[in-house]
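Hi again,

Forgot to attach this to my earlier email, sorry! This is the prediction with adenosine-5'-triphosphate bound. I've pasted everything inline since the attachment limit keeps bouncing my files.
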Amino acid sequence: MTGETVLALRGVSKRFGAVQALTDIELEVRAGEVVALVGDNGAGKSTLVKAIAGVHQPDEGTIEWQGRSVTIHRPQDAQHLGIATVYQDLALCDNLDVVGNLFLGREIRRFTILDEVAMEKRSRTLLNTLSIRIPSVRIPVASLSGGQRQVVAIARALIGSPKVVMLDEPTAALGVEQTAQVLDLVERLRDQGLGVILISHNMADVMAVADTVAVLRLGRNNGVFDKERTNQEEIISAITGATDNAVTRRQARGTEGSP
Amino acid sequence: MTGETVLALRGVSKRFGAVQALTDIELEVRAGEVVALVGDNGAGKSTLVKAIAGVHQPDEGTIEWQGRSVTIHRPQDAQHLGIATVYQDLALCDNLDVVGNLFLGREIRRFTILDEVAMEKRSRTLLNTLSIRIPSVRIPVASLSGGQRQVVAIARALIGSPKVVMLDEPTAALGVEQTAQVLDLVERLRDQGLGVILISHNMADVMAVADTVAVLRLGRNNGVFDKERTNQEEIISAITGATDNAVTRRQARGTEGSP
Amino acid sequence: MPKGGVNAPVPVAPEATPAVDPRLLVRQEGVKGYLGEFRRRVTSGELGSLPVVLALIIIWAVFGSLNSSFLSAQNLSNLSQQIVGTGMIAIGVVFVLLLGEIDLSVGSVSGLCAAIFAVLNVTHGVNQWVALLSALVGGALVGLIQGLFFAKVGVPAFVVTLAGNLGWNGLMLQVLGASGTVNLSGKDIVSRLYSTIYGEQAAAYGAAAVGVLLFLGASVLDARRRQAAGVPSRPVLDIALRTVALAIIAFLAAYTLNQYKGLPLALLIFLIFIVVLDFVLRRTSYGRQVFALGGNIEGARRAGINVSWIRISVFTICSTMAAVGGLFLAAQIQSASQTSGGGNLLMNAIAAGVIGGTSLFGGRGSTWSALLGALVIGSIQSGMNIQGLSNAIQFMITGAVLLAAVVVDSLARRTQQAAGRA
Amino acid sequence: MPKGGVNAPVPVAPEATPAVDPRLLVRQEGVKGYLGEFRRRVTSGELGSLPVVLALIIIWAVFGSLNSSFLSAQNLSNLSQQIVGTGMIAIGVVFVLLLGEIDLSVGSVSGLCAAIFAVLNVTHGVNQWVALLSALVGGALVGLIQGLFFAKVGVPAFVVTLAGNLGWNGLMLQVLGASGTVNLSGKDIVSRLYSTIYGEQAAAYGAAAVGVLLFLGASVLDARRRQAAGVPSRPVLDIALRTVALAIIAFLAAYTLNQYKGLPLALLIFLIFIVVLDFVLRRTSYGRQVFALGGNIEGARRAGINVSWIRISVFTICSTMAAVGGLFLAAQIQSASQTSGGGNLLMNAIAAGVIGGTSLFGGRGSTWSALLGALVIGSIQSGMNIQGLSNAIQFMITGAVLLAAVVVDSLARRTQQAAGRA
Amino acid sequence: NESSGGGGSSGSASGGAVGAVRIGLLLPETKTTRYEQFDRPLIEQKIKELAPQAQIDYYNANENATTQQTQVDTALTKGDKVLILDAVDAKSIQSSVQKAHDAGVKVIAYDRLAQGPVDAYVSFDNKKVGELQGQALVAAVGDKAGAGSIIMINGSPTDPNAAEFKAGAHSAIDGKLKIGKEYDTPNWDPNNANQEASAAITAIGGPNVVGVYSANDGMAAGIATALKAAGLSVPLTGQDAQLDGVQRILAGTQTMSIYKPFKPETDVAAQMAVTLAQGKTLDPSLVPTTVTNGSGNQVPANLITPIVLTKDNIKTTVVADGLYTVAQICTPDYADACKAAGLQ
Ligand SMILES: Nc1ncnc2c1ncn2[C@@H]1O[C@H](COP(=O)(O)OP(=O)(O)OP(=O)(O)O)[C@@H](O)[C@H]1O
Ligand SMILES: Nc1ncnc2c1ncn2[C@@H]1O[C@H](COP(=O)(O)OP(=O)(O)OP(=O)(O)O)[C@@H](O)[C@H]1O
Ligand SMILES: [Mg+2]
Ligand SMILES: [Mg+2]
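Structure tokens for the complex follow:
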């Protein structure tokens, strides 16, 4: 089902001031594969995504794109390669309306003039797909709810024709229905042969759509698991670094304490 | 287990420009009770929380605090009543460090001078409780990861001595372990006799800690359910307004399509 | 392999739900709905530039009642020319303000470019068109240099342009040389910018008619396309009302100008600049990206926008507009002097943008605010001059009126904030 | 029932994990660790005000090599007095900048307050202390009014203070009256602010010693308390190095001043203002709240901070500092004149804050930047004066040096940005 | 304080070589061209002529009184022994003059009579300038005086000298002409002057304007265009004999300017400076009169009369004195006017 490796990281390290955020990270993403990137808070997941997207430059290590080593200096570079990213902090322009944000940097034009009508039409279709209700696509995103903003950011990434899509906690703010739609979307992307990197803290979602699960811990690789040959407990203990953790304790309490 | 009503909303409505965000909302929170507020994206949950917290003024309706009708003009007013809030957009001051943010507006002083040592010590304890690793409590929150920021915001709400705590999607960005800790925390708050309003899209979490589940749909009340006498499906269909929705469809597909 | 592109990248789910929101208060059709909508906007403070227009009307009414010659055709006609210099500079400032930055060099740059033109054309006898072009290119170069320091080196725009303010002023003194003031010949293109006034009645009315028709045509075409594509469009009544309002203003202005000498070329050029640059800001990718940068730089960068290029180009536009404004100011006094670009020019140009409604914090504004702001400031000055008060009093009143003009706007915005749109 | 309060609200979970992060690069003990840390900071651009200090040293070296009298004790001593007026105003500006706002009225306010003092004391023979108090209260009132318009009515600070800039200037002309310039008596308290210079060697050295000891004492006490409480504290070596560096600067300055006339009272007062207000900003709730507002207004509001009150108070402080600066400027020329508060004063005061490293966008800065910035600007002016170039050239060079002084800082920050600390 | 700065070098002064005499030249601004175009080079030239080894430090205060006082400090630091001081603010400079005096440095008040213990004064009288402008305007308006009123456009309200021009002009005009509107123009800004004139013409009514008083040539430029736009041709004054002003006078759009023959003034100042630097007393021929300054000090002085510049005396004044060449004045645009005036 999965094709050849589109994106690979080799020994990537990144340091912020006195914090060594990433150390020697290795990662591979194949076409038609969903790689879930999981890890504790502050494990370095978002930093890794930003390094691939050209927001931060890695201090060491190389990024390989379809087998060739590439340098990604700026977000443009990543986009030109065909990497689309949904950032955890969304990074929308609050003063622009929904349409403006969706097409920012990739406006549809007619005779060099913005084709607002075409963009508006397409925005509505896109948002419907993700079954979100937004009062009007012409209101500034500043006045949207958290989930609505998140959907706008996800829809943004789908404009253009990416080869790899990176989603940093895309369903964090989403309702149950919207979450289901996004998971469906991830599966459709995979079926179309795109590589997907999905970051999530929700193990159920991860187990539902991922093919491979890569675990980061304290800025280092802490195992890559094949979905078919692992289970939730194994992954959680790789994330927390212990089999005895708050989660298991809570579960244990829940079981024994239930009336 | 639960005491008398601390906070009650009567017919609260709120309008933003051309959008009627809330219509005639009724809600009651008793001491020692966890009320889960659920609803689709854009249902008006955050708007409701902000109306209670004094960030927005409701256009109509009254807020009752311990039986008396009160007006909450500014966030200070809510704090003075004893309402602590964790906002969905966190609203931290990026330029201040973790300690600065935690104690903002409630600094510990020694002879009118800030007692940095005491504050730093207490910050560490607080953060440990929520089992988050933050490189240093002296770095600006701008450089924290999404989950780290969220934990700072949660810890913020616990300083002071609130009677009601409102948590707007507190675990959205949290790892599995941190989520478990926050759920534990919610239970401890309830056991201490505080009223808790918890907003979450995660039905498992809601079912785990809530006593009552209030559903909002398109800015209106859509039922209040007692945890003991309901189930996840009922709530989800109240949220989405249909028994046939993307979630059930996805589940159905998952079951039949599983290999 | 991924299919798609802008036209079909997303695999549309079959079960897509419609996005119409029952909570959106849709306006009723007809006049009643229109009034209701208007009432709603007034109470929630979404009035756009209406408060500034209101302030302007109050200013005019007060000065007009104090001295009848304020509202005479002659004075209004003079006013329409006097605001052009500052207004042109203010257009450039609006661009910079949209980025959330500031340009403190516009005064000096306007003086420098006027000096370049005058010295080349008058002192060295260079062809007037070459001299004009040199002045404009000079302005653009200045902006380019400042933009590079800001965007590439990362020096705060405030400091770059403050340094520029000094440096270009020094260069201007150097260019003017020892003899100082250079008189324009009075027959060159720049002098004519100010002295040309189209006296035929047809000119002013024609310009008004063209403006109104263009607006109507564009509105109708847009509404058609929208209806055809099935996206919400402006109702016919709305378009009609707006067109009528515009027509009233345009023809009233034309009538007044014709009462005196006719349509001043300076005013015409100013309006054309505003309309064209407004179009650039609102209808091109470039303009969209300028707004994006003003809203969220990091967001814009991540959206793949070339942030440095936008910044440099905006500073170049600003300085070029300063050059244009400088030429108009030189035309006004038919000379380039050592005081050119000094005095209150800088503050007036920035204030014009801000008073007209462009935010200092970026991401919100329009070139029309340059017109409105320049009109407010120009009217106050003109009214004060006609009053002929002592300077001490005049300063105080100017300050007070300036403040009052913006208080109207601020109060409207406060309602808006209370209504949650901040 | 909820128990708690600041001391025990959170039910601590028994299974709390320690928060020590293995990825935090802890500095090695000893000199080697210190150097390593320093190298790391240089490469990642976290240098604080070091680049500005570097720029200052370069400026001094260049002007000193061009003309030996630049580095003479007499010139440096004069310089240390000349920067006080602008520097005092810049301190106030720093407060406003921390909010992310701007105050364009400081120049006019400084002139107004100087005029109030001079006219009351000299023309009307009012007791000097009463006159002094009136001037300061006048400044505070101005700030209060401007703050109210900004915080309560919601007029942008830029517009309020621009209007103030005009209005207060008008009021100053009115206060000075027809006769214009008022010379101070030379024996009043304000005149003595500038003319008093403590000639005994002990004065300057004593002040330096007190400063160094205070710093050392505070550092050691703090480190002790921190160790006792078990939170990370500054290593002994670090404290020692900082104290030594401070001592070198302080005693070198004292030595230089003693070479000429001694310790100027103006400089002493300036330093005291900086230290005290720095303390207010960094060590009191009030200061914390000012920073919070500059970082995220909405966040500050939701944290229960009284936003209006902070805003009003900051504008009041700013105008009061403008009044203080105005008195020093009047002392410098022993008179209040119609040009007081005009010219480049406003731009110099704002530029001093910005060059010293206070961000225009709020939330980052310190009162020390007023000192550094005023020193940079004062040094350039003084150096230029000594060079005696024509004004055209002088303007250009001043602009270039100003830019160069900040380029150093900007390049450092760029590294920092690349290192992700933007 | 007898041991003045010249003391050290006075021994060799008798031999004609004045050692390394240092003279400070402090001028007030750059917005009018005369200071850097004429005063500075002429003074420097004359001093070099009188004392070839003298060193001259030049300062320009850029219209800022505070700057000027720091420049006095700088001059004292650098060891200047004589200051030729053109005060930005004659009144507030007093403390600096006192400071210089206390340091044994001689101060020559140049062009404007500074307060304090000044040692010598050479100038055109500011008040006299205003008077001459006023008289010229009264003469030019002539018998139209009854037919309407004039517009008065004065200099900057924050410039103390502008007040003196204004007072002088009023003393000549008041009672003879009716003043329709009067303005003080911030920063002497020509564009402001232009707007003021336009507004005044509108307010008074074009045909009722019989003349315009402009305090200097710079503002006259802006006023001339306003008059032209309103189709008026009435007398207009000026000051400083700037090149553009001379051209306007030739073209007939300006009536007069005030020409201050800089050469005599600069020569006197240079002679005074060198003499004082050598520690000698001033020759009575150099200081024929005495004036009392604002602080009550008696100052030996040399007052030079300014000249009213009109179309008729351009050739004999500014051209003859070498201020401008005919070629500079008679650019192609003004060729016809020059011929008519007999300049070419
Ligand atoms: N710009 C920055 N400057 C300094 N430190 C940073 C910066 N960005 C991230 N860090 C640090 O790097 C570490 C990793 O952060 P990152 O955002 O990658 O975590 P994450 O895995 O995405 O966590 P989360 O699940 O909470 O989003 C954190 O400890 C954080 O404090
Ligand atoms: N300041 C505002 N101005 C205009 N409309 C607003 C504003 N704030 C919220 N809204 C609108 O009100 C509706 C409810 O928003 P709210 O943030 O309360 O939703 P929510 O239930 O919290 O959703 P989510 O789960 O996505 O966070 C949305 O449609 C949103 O567009
Ligand atoms: Mg993250
Ligand atoms: Mg929400």
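The mean pLDDT of chain A is 89. Residues A 145-146; B 45-46, 88, 168 surround magnesium ion (ligand 4) (CB under 6 Å).

That should be everything now.

G.
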